Amino acid sequence: MRKVLIANRGEIARRIIRTCKLKGVATVAVYSDADKDLPYVREADEAVHIGPPPVPHSYLNVEAIIAAAKSTNADAIHPGYGLLSENEAFAQRVSDEGLVFIGPSPKVIGQMGDKLTARQIMQEAGVPVVPGCEEPVNTPDEAVAIAATIGYPIMLKASAGGGGIGMQICRDEQELRQAYQSAKGRAKAYFGNDAMYVEKYVERPHHIEVQIAGDEHGEVIHLLERECSIQRRHQKVLEESPSPFLDQTTREKLCQAAVQAAKAVGYTGVGTVEFIVDEDKNFYFLEMNTRLQVEHPVTEEMTGLDLVAMQLEIAKGNPLGIAQADVKALQHAIELRVYAEDPVTFMPSPGTIGLYQPPVLDFVRIDDGVEAGTQVTPFYDPMIAKVIVSGATREEAVVRAKEAMEKFQITGIKTNIPFLQEVLADERFTAGAYTTWFVQERVSK
To answer: Which residues participate in catalysis according to the annotation?
Structure first.
């Protein structure tokens, strides 16, 4: 593997370029009109323009991306996260063109991308799943009938969904009937698939995920877990590892269930198995993300491993090169996602960045994709940086995270830094006693 095209943008493209340089692999960036001046475009060995700002005409333009790979003689394509990273047809097209797709097989992407299929596979593999339906519900009446058997509250979900889109909590029949058509419409608009299903909603759960890696030789290991319960609009804003909620017995069971899940589909590459964990530490399979996660640096800082380097080696057909017994929690890590958004309403705040000074501290890692003068546009996700802080203990990591947020200076746009500072100062967070309801409870005070 001599040259990798990165079918993505911003901070994740920059992150992949960094490891490729360390591994002696050349890189090709692709960019839209809106991104031509971003740092990742300069830092790649080559860069190819692929279209105007809207993603359907640029970063989701499969023909333009394949053409860019061919014209630059790339050997492989790394999809990053989001965009085309979990697109079964794209992965298949990459393979059909004689290129290496840095990720699992198209078949696995397809199986895990359909939430109902994923549920069925996990049930057969003995991995616990949340009670719910096994087939799509085609009418509000069918949804109401399923809800009556499992009991309210329920979660109405898009089978092809992700990122919290097409999800709605319903606490009674009236709410379910009202939500059904709107959720179905959003699923059709975002995913081209309006299949819906119903599952039991676990009250005030923890969202905990396990990083897994599998090679082409049948070896699968876990890289421990991440606590991802600080969320707004069902999207994560702060993650940490290890989870302050889990005891060692539950941690081992959870991680083994994740390995079991990966083996059930013959997983190759780096991926994540996500679970919902209730207050009694019962856990249930939520979904499998067949790609690198936004929060992967938490695991890297906690274990000392480079997940992008692992992806490259696995894609070459090499064995993992690390045994399960070698995976250790070396320190505690916390990731804080800095967004260009209003810290109260969480609405995006596009504009031009003026002063941009991330904290420069020995215990802080910054993964970002912007600089002073960068125009934050409304075309893409408003995340501008990830601040990853580590410490010998959770207590030390929290103190250091507070210092990092105090020293992060950004002007010209609104950011969620004040919100992140509130999280770090909250007694529930300090005690490690928070759930996915943290933000909702804060707003409702």
So the answer is: 291
What is the sign of the dihedral through the CA atoms of 20, 21, 26 and 27? positive
The DSSP secondary-structure symbol of 436 reads T
CA distance 299 to 318: 21
Task: Average the pLDDT over 326-349 and give the result.
Answer: 96
Inter-helix orientation angle 88-96/106-113, to 10°:
170
Query: Any idea what the Cα angle at residue 167 is, between residues 380 and 336, rounded to 5°?
Result: 50
Work out the number of other CB atoms within 10 angstroms of the CB of residue 95.
Answer: 14
Q: What is the pLDDT of residue 164?
A: 66
Query: How many whole angstroms from its chain centre is CA 375?
Result: 24
Name the residue with tokens 């991926």. Answer: 271
**What is the rounded CA–CA span in Å between residue 384 and residue 381?**
9
Q: pLDDT per residue over 397-416, tens digit each?
A: 999 999 999 999 999 999 99
**Span 141-150, pLDDT tens digits:** 999 999 999 9
Give the containing element (helix H, strand E) for 417.
helix 417-425
Confidence tier at 391 by pLDDT (50, 70, 90): very high
SS3 122: helix
How far is residue 221's CA from residue 218's CA, in Å, rounded to a whole number? Answer: 10
Query: How far, in Å, CA of 105 to CA of 233, rounded?
Result: 30
How many Cα atoms occupy the beta-carbon half-sphere of 265 within 13 Å? 35
DSSP 202: P
Cα 442 to the center of its chain, rounded Å: 24
pLDDT at residue 57 tops 60: yes
